[in-house]
Design brief:
- This protein is mainly beta.
- The protein has a single domain, classed as Neuraminidase.
- The protein is about 5% helix and about 45% strand.
- It is built from 1 helix and 24 strands.
- The protein has a 4-stranded antiparallel β-sheet with strand order 1-24-23-22, with no helix packed on it.
C-alpha cells in the first residue's frame, strides 16, 4: 500500500507523459557535450540558481560561496569564511539559504553575502526550500531528514534512510524525493499539509558502478516534463515521470558529479558540480523555478 500510494503521487505530476517513452535523446543535443566552466577548487557542491539564471555554488573545504555569471562564465566570490556550506537553494523570497553539516546549522545569506543562522543543532548536508518557507534538510549521520519551519521550529520527518544526501521537491510540492548515497534507491514521500512526510517508498532505482556498490546518489533536480536528474557515481542519471530510468549522461572528464541544476535565463542549460570543477551543457529540457509554480 505504501509503494502504491507513493507511485500514484509520482504519476500525478506528469499524467500526459505516462504512456510515452522519455528517452535521454529528448534532452541531450547532438554534438553538444560537457563544457568546463571553472576549475581549481577543492570540492564543488550545492549549485543554486538566482532569478536571472546565474549559478551560485560552493567550494566546501575553502568555505567559499561563489557566483557564476551564466552569460560571461566568470566566477566571483559571494561569501567567504562563513562556514563549510554544502547545500544552497534560493527561496521564494529571493534569499539564498545554505546547509552547513559540519557546523550543524541552516543559514541564510543577504544580497551582500552576509550570513545569519536560522536553525542549529541539526544535521544539514543538503536542503530544499518550499514556497511556504519550509526547509527540508538531510542528516546522513543520524539517517534522517529534518523539517525547519519559517519560525525556526524543527522536527524530524523521515528516518531509517542509510545515508540521506540530495533532496528535492516536485514542482507542485506534493512530493519530496531523497537520495540514499549508500544504496541504490531514491525515496519519495508525500508532503502533508502540515509539512510532515508520509508514505515513504524507494520508487527510483539507480544504476550502480558495480553490483552491490553504493550509488553515491547526491544532488537532484527536475524539469517541466516531470523528469528527475540525480548526480551519481556513474554520471547524471535521468528518470521519467513514472520513476523509470531513462539513461545516464557520462561523467564530465571522468569526474563523478556531486550535484545538478538547470540555469540560464530560460533554465535550459544543465550545470553540474564535479570534484574540483563546474561544467555545463545546453539541453532540450527546461528546469523548474521553485516558489513560482505552486497553485498553478
Amino acid at each position: 500500500m505504501r509503494f502504491l500510494a507513493a507511485t500514484l503521487l509520482l504519476v500525478g505530476f506528469a499524467s500526459t507523459a505516462m504512456s510515452q517513452d522519455m528517452p535521454l535523446s529528448d534532452v541531450l543535443i547532438e554534438g553538444q557535450g560537457w563544457e568546463l566552466v571553472a576549475d581549481g577548487y577543492k570540492f564543488t557542491e550545492g549549485p543554486a540558481v538566482d532569478a536571472d539564471g546565474n549559478v551560485f555554488f560552493v567550494d566546501v573545504p575553502n568555505q567559499l560561496v561563489l557566483k557564476l555569471d551564466h552569460a560571461s562564465g566568470k566566477v566571483s566570490t559571494f561569501s567567504e569564511g562563513n562556514g563549510a556550506t554544502s547545500g544552497l537553494m534560493f527561496g521564494a523570497d529571493g534569499k539564498l539559504y545554505g546547509s552547513q553539516n559540519r557546523d550543524r546549522r541552516i543559514v541564510v545569506f543577504d544580497e551582500a553575502g552576509k550570513m545569519q543562522v536560522i536553525a542549529d543543532d541539526l544535521g544539514a548536508n543538503d536542503l530544499v526550500v518550499a514556497s511556504n518557507g519550509n526547509i527540508y534538510c538531510t542528516d546522513p549521520k543520524e539517517h534522517q531528514v529534518w523539517l525547519v519551519r519559517p519560525n525556526g521550529q524543527k522536527q524530524v520527518v523521515a528516518k531509517d534512510i542509510a545515508s540521506p544526501n540530495g533532496i528535492i521537491l516536485w514542482p507542485h510540492e506534493g512530493t519530496l524525493v531523497i537520495a540514499d548515497s549508500a544504496g541504490e534507491n531514491l525515496y519519495s514521500y508525500r508532503v502533508e499539509e502540515d509539512g510532515t512526510l508520509s508514505y515513504g517508498s524507494p520508487d527510483y532505482t539507480c544504476r550502480l558502478p558495480e553490483p552491490e556498490a553504493p550509488s553515491r546518489a547526491d544532488g537532484m533536480t527536475v524539469d517541466t516534463k516531470g523528469r528527475l536528474y540525480v548526480a551519481t557515481a556513474v554520471g547524471v542519471q535521468m528518470f521519467d515521470s513514472t520513476a523509470r530510468i531513462s539513461g545516464v549522461m557520462l561523467k564530465p572528464d571522468g569526474k563523478a558529479p556531486s550535484n545538478v541544476v538547470f540555469a540560464g535565463p530560460k533554465l535550459d542549460t544543465m550545470y553540474v558540480t564535479a570534484r574540483d570543477a563546474i561544467y555545463r551543457r545546453p539541453t532540450q529540457a527546461t528546469g523548474v523555478r521553485y516558489g513560482k509554480v505552486k497553485g498553478k
